């Protein structure tokens, strides 16, 4: 009686699969965990450190390598196996096990919480919240399907009522607000932190507001009274003959929520003030374009907060 020995069986451990579907075939490569992300970021360039086996498979779990004919049909006859592997690494979808997905989600949750904790404050005291307090507030939102429906949001605890809008018939209807249902592994920590902050500010499970950036803006005095193309001030009354153009100075000040200091010298005007982080990009683009690079913007503080004692 012959003894069947798994001489051709390849046992893979600590593996991450990268899959790419092309020409109606799914191609797979077996990689070491974490090395795929390092390769994609440029931190790792040696394929030997990324691949467990330098081959392309139709099914790694079955040990079924991809026939040359299938590779040529999908990738072209001129591509080597290494070139095909590099394309799969760059464009393919990474598959990881349940434990790895859980670990990645935990890492993202910590990163999201840390970002949010560094960007929001208690609007009354201007003090930052601890990561634990932010985590509990987000858990309140996610446990309620993305929004905080407790009595504190209805006006008892935080004093925040549920926002409403007027419909066409004049009847009030609930306003759709940002929601939070938890961290996912398909989006970056930065974008999810922004979503989390929007939901926290909208539903106020704890009193929260975005921290403000403190900026110093410098502009040549000769440009301050120049009109901004396509923008005019609203007429204050019906008797006003015509609308006046919005000046460069007007536009810059419109981005600033609170002016700290403002000085006008012989050649330059300088203003220091507080700006909502979401307005920073627009302000920077305006100054760069309207002053043709002669204006400057300098970040003095990324997030103006007061640390607790």
UniProtKB/TrEMBL annotation:
<dbReference type="GO" id="GO:0005737">
    <property type="term" value="C:cytoplasm"/>
</dbReference>
<feature type="domain" description="Ribosome maturation protein SDO1/SBDS central">
    <location>
        <begin position="110"/>
        <end position="211"/>
    </location>
</feature>
<dbReference type="GO" id="GO:0005634">
    <property type="term" value="C:nucleus"/>
</dbReference>
<feature type="domain" description="Ribosome maturation protein SDO1/SBDS N-terminal">
    <location>
        <begin position="14"/>
        <end position="101"/>
    </location>
</feature>
<dbReference type="InterPro" id="IPR046928">
    <property type="entry name" value="SDO1/SBDS_C"/>
</dbReference>
<dbReference type="InterPro" id="IPR036786">
    <property type="entry name" value="Ribosome_mat_SBDS_N_sf"/>
</dbReference>
<dbReference type="InterPro" id="IPR037188">
    <property type="entry name" value="Sdo1/SBDS_central_sf"/>
</dbReference>
<feature type="domain" description="Ribosome maturation protein SDO1/SBDS C-terminal">
    <location>
        <begin position="241"/>
        <end position="302"/>
    </location>
</feature>
<keyword id="KW-0690">Ribosome biogenesis</keyword>
<dbReference type="InterPro" id="IPR019783">
    <property type="entry name" value="SDO1/SBDS_N"/>
</dbReference>
<dbReference type="Pfam" id="PF09377">
    <property type="entry name" value="SBDS_domain_II"/>
</dbReference>
<dbReference type="Pfam" id="PF20268">
    <property type="entry name" value="SBDS_C"/>
</dbReference>
<dbReference type="InterPro" id="IPR018978">
    <property type="entry name" value="SDO1/SBDS_central"/>
</dbReference>
<dbReference type="InterPro" id="IPR002140">
    <property type="entry name" value="Sdo1/SBDS"/>
</dbReference>
<keyword id="KW-0963">Cytoplasm</keyword>
<dbReference type="Pfam" id="PF01172">
    <property type="entry name" value="SBDS_N"/>
</dbReference>
<protein>
    <recommendedName>
        <fullName>Shwachman-Bodian-Diamond syndrome protein</fullName>
    </recommendedName>
</protein>
<comment type="subunit">
    <text>Associates with the 60S ribosomal subunit.</text>
</comment>
<keyword id="KW-0539">Nucleus</keyword>
<dbReference type="GO" id="GO:0042256">
    <property type="term" value="P:cytosolic ribosome assembly"/>
</dbReference>
<comment type="similarity">
    <text>Belongs to the SDO1/SBDS family.</text>
</comment>
<feature type="region of interest" description="Disordered">
    <location>
        <begin position="140"/>
        <end position="180"/>
    </location>
</feature>
<dbReference type="InterPro" id="IPR039100">
    <property type="entry name" value="Sdo1/SBDS-like"/>
</dbReference>
